[in-house]
Amino acid sequence: MIKVGIIGGAGYTAGELLRILLYHPQTEIIFVHSSSNAGNTVSDVHVDLLGDTGLKFTSTMPLSDVDVIFLCMGHGKSKEFIEKNELPGRLKVVDLSHDFRLKREGNEFVYGLPELNREEIKTAKKIANPGCFATGIQLALLPLAAGNLLVDEVHVQAITGSTGAGQKPTETSHFSWRNSNLSAYKIFEHQHQGEILQSLGQLQPGFSNGFNFVPIRGTHTRGIFVSAYTKFEGPLEEANELYQAFYIGHPFVVLSEKNPSLKQVVNTNKAVLYLEKHHDKLVIISLTDNLIKGASGQAVQNMNLMFGLDEKAGLNLKPVAF
Amino acid sequence: MIKVGIIGGAGYTAGELLRILLYHPQTEIIFVHSSSNAGNTVSDVHVDLLGDTGLKFTSTMPLSDVDVIFLCMGHGKSKEFIEKNELPGRLKVVDLSHDFRLKREGNEFVYGLPELNREEIKTAKKIANPGCFATGIQLALLPLAAGNLLVDEVHVQAITGSTGAGQKPTETSHFSWRNSNLSAYKIFEHQHQGEILQSLGQLQPGFSNGFNFVPIRGTHTRGIFVSAYTKFEGPLEEANELYQAFYIGHPFVVLSEKNPSLKQVVNTNKAVLYLEKHHDKLVIISLTDNLIKGASGQAVQNMNLMFGLDEKAGLNLKPVAF
Amino acid sequence: MIKVGIIGGAGYTAGELLRILLYHPQTEIIFVHSSSNAGNTVSDVHVDLLGDTGLKFTSTMPLSDVDVIFLCMGHGKSKEFIEKNELPGRLKVVDLSHDFRLKREGNEFVYGLPELNREEIKTAKKIANPGCFATGIQLALLPLAAGNLLVDEVHVQAITGSTGAGQKPTETSHFSWRNSNLSAYKIFEHQHQGEILQSLGQLQPGFSNGFNFVPIRGTHTRGIFVSAYTKFEGPLEEANELYQAFYIGHPFVVLSEKNPSLKQVVNTNKAVLYLEKHHDKLVIISLTDNLIKGASGQAVQNMNLMFGLDEKAGLNLKPVAF
Amino acid sequence: MIKVGIIGGAGYTAGELLRILLYHPQTEIIFVHSSSNAGNTVSDVHVDLLGDTGLKFTSTMPLSDVDVIFLCMGHGKSKEFIEKNELPGRLKVVDLSHDFRLKREGNEFVYGLPELNREEIKTAKKIANPGCFATGIQLALLPLAAGNLLVDEVHVQAITGSTGAGQKPTETSHFSWRNSNLSAYKIFEHQHQGEILQSLGQLQPGFSNGFNFVPIRGTHTRGIFVSAYTKFEGPLEEANELYQAFYIGHPFVVLSEKNPSLKQVVNTNKAVLYLEKHHDKLVIISLTDNLIKGASGQAVQNMNLMFGLDEKAGLNLKPVAF
């Protein structure tokens, strides 16, 4: 059994991790740290876990008792944590913040998108888990980059559920405001663009065409709906073959022959992709659950790879479907 | 033109008042006071009014320039306001808080439910506008009380939209929590019970049978769905006639022959009632929009009555329907 | 491995069964019969299963190849099926329709509510799986009936998700109509009352006090929110002990100390109960997922019991939570 | 008073027309024709109008008794109607279908987008009311076309409410399917592209750059959220001035300085526009209510212009806001 510690246990991504790991056949949760909730039972905060676990939040982090820790704190906090704590040599780390996603001198974290970096992840000690938008968008574009086929501007629009914004109440997360509402934000300036461009450049060195991205707040809680398009000369069949070939052996990416809808992936670790060709453009629809494939499910997928487990262990999740 | 001042102009009920009064044919808005927003344009806060008005929030309250003020501050604040300010003798007041709804020594406010107290309202100077749950529930039960027909316990269940809880972000108003969710609260202990029992007792003196009330938070923004039932000996026809007779001449209460649904009243000042008889019970469905008939629309209805205008002036609102 | 056949494979309850059984550790799905979809892949209809299974719907029902069949056809169709087909002697049957829920001469089906009839279910060959409202309401009331404590009228109000009404498009399932809407239906006359009263009478023979039930269509897809109350003399502690004692050893029923909300159970087989005492009334909140504990999850729970498996096998489902 | 007849009275757009015209100060509804509902009261179908009108649907169309008719039938039916019926010479027609939107030999209808064709509309006898997507998208782009500034491909993405698809129940309008769901459809091939390109070409003759349009089904009932962008050389101020100048005197188009959200326009005839500049791109957000500015409200706006009334008559609608 892999022994697991969770740090920052009261937030959304920690809740999802717990929901997954409690029934993962090869993990044991040793501690769930939360400074604000220390001593309370985990199901006091993640109330849907009532009856599933009697775990309590801890104020201590017995790092030498675990094989892996998941960092589920706010952005900026992971960096602080890594700087302040001396980690046991054998301890693996999966960080769900954006602190270590961008390559730079001294950053030892591997960018944890298994469909891009599976082999590196298997031997990594530290993983920077991708952002939710970044996951859905990269999966839509990676096969093109791998074929050096991003030859013109890329146009991306993505609609996210409210859980992507975390659990702190704000004006735009107020039910009275958000219900039946839509709004764009950080137009062309979303912070995930950095990691997306980094990955595209990894596969297609020198990629520097325009990347146009309109993020939209949707009136749903879970899931990211990406529609993207760019110039593509070949016929649809060629594109489908390209995507099929790129994702062969990647169990969570599914190419749909029919135009899909977002709820097909909600509460699963899957990404569903769908292609259409119009004029000179290839249109790609990409669907993911922002809290699972876009966060905690992918973190578990990375853990599975790091410890040599079946990539799908613990991730055969029942879709919510409705 | 009736000259209007609004105090506490940044909240939900003030917003609804503005949406109604801006196009009321016989009112002119002289000032909208908000200490926190003084100097800002009204449409900065009530953004749907962009293009409808260039009004700005004021820090002053020129009470002698207006004929009527609407108090839209939090509960408790109206009492403070009345105590601190000397009101010009001719100024009328409509208070939307619960501060003056209950009769007690020295309380000069008339309880502003037109279907109960229309004649008193016409000559009143100060109106305590009813609570939202209280409005929907009283309209369901008043005809029975008027006939001394509340002879057994009354059972009431009501589902409210999120706007009933105001605009302050809280855990239970967070979209991620509330969307597709339901929860009961203040079971058998809701603060509106006082005014409901007061009105029932006004019509049926000595009413003291049990009043059982389960309030429920719904996953919608606007509207209160009340289902109520109590013992009733006669046939359905008798009940329908009783209700028809009681509400004759009250333009906003409509008796439906068909089982109705909540959206029939959303964005209107109407209350739709519907009756069924089963065994020895009369079941009453009562539908209202909590922000309009349950708050700001009723406040305008009261103003219309106080100034001798057509009761419906400014209140022929387009239903949202969908 | 238990070999499973599903009949009526295209509907909502069959879809949920598939979502659960595909990852059940001790079952193998041998066939999924659908006359209208024979030959199509299962994931063409249950599109969220794309990538999870390559199963196709069959036009044949090889009954002798399986250990158990689940009947997921419309109400009335199960009776027809049982009359027309000679079932192999060893074949077990779980029927999700209401055809065999009521006891009558010649009805060999055991009513499959494990918290009521677990021992009988273990040795049964044929199970009538309870209705969704019936499950949530019975779990709220059984401990009282078991103590002969239903001494006065029972008041029940339940709000159901849209999936309870099946997948046939109707006026009241149209998104434009139902979104943000609420409506009551079959007031005091819902067809599940029969099975509820049957079970209450099983534990409290002679129970004949009034049963008042208002079913409501909610604006959500999954889950039933029940609020019920009746006279109860003792203090809250006594009620909590009574419920705790009754459900001890029943792994899916959880008593909450805090006022819960519906989403705590969505996408799980759990029922969360919560009690409050007011005046002379005990109030019970009961939360279930209508498609899981109220249908397909309970069907699997029954199968587990019939075959001597762990009652929770395959039912450790990740809650959707949001 | 303008005397009005409505043909095809049972559908969504007719319902909206009725909701608006019943309280329009200068119109009188003479008949509402519906072959399927003849004899029934209008509020049996448009149930939110209960208490507002006692009108009944007619089986006859007394065309000589009215000044204007609104054609609210399905697409294709208006053409049939015009061919089959001889219209009185003085009768004006507003057609809400797409039958006459495209210019062609013999088409006498004026395309009824007041912000494009106001002068022509004033003297027109027959109006082809624009499509809902077409309205929102054109309002986003017309000022650029008017300045010959569409110099590169145009990228448009629009999310529509469910009422845009009409009231016939379908798989994608089923609440269980659509709630919390998102899906693209008719990608790059939506039927409204024709009228959009026609209008852009009217202002910028020879416009033939690519028009890329991804329509998306949202999980809301009312409103179209458009995000569009294209190359624009100048600074943001220049764009804002251009839009301000183009829409000066058009009372329903409002330029927002702040990033707006869809509900600002729901239940109104307004279009809210908002601009941002990034790199070489101008991004335009355009918000409209598909049933009002995108259909029946615009139809009334056209009627007002045709009869020389105030363009806003009857259209000072209370926003739903929440």
Automatic annotation (TrEMBL), chains A, B, C, D:
Subcellular location: Cytoplasm
Domain named Semialdehyde dehydrogenase NAD-binding: residues: 3-124
PROSITE patterns tied to this protein: ARGC
Pfam family, one: Semialdhyde_dhC_1
GO BP annotation list: L-arginine biosynthetic process
UniProt KW Glycosyltransferase keyword: no
Function: Catalyzes the NADPH-dependent reduction of N-acetyl-5-glutamyl phosphate to yield N-acetyl-L-glutamate 5-semialdehyde.
Family: Belongs to the NAGSA dehydrogenase family. Type 1 subfamily.
Name of this chain's protein: N-acetyl-gamma-glutamyl-phosphate reductase
Species this protein is from: Tangfeifania diversioriginum
Gene: argC
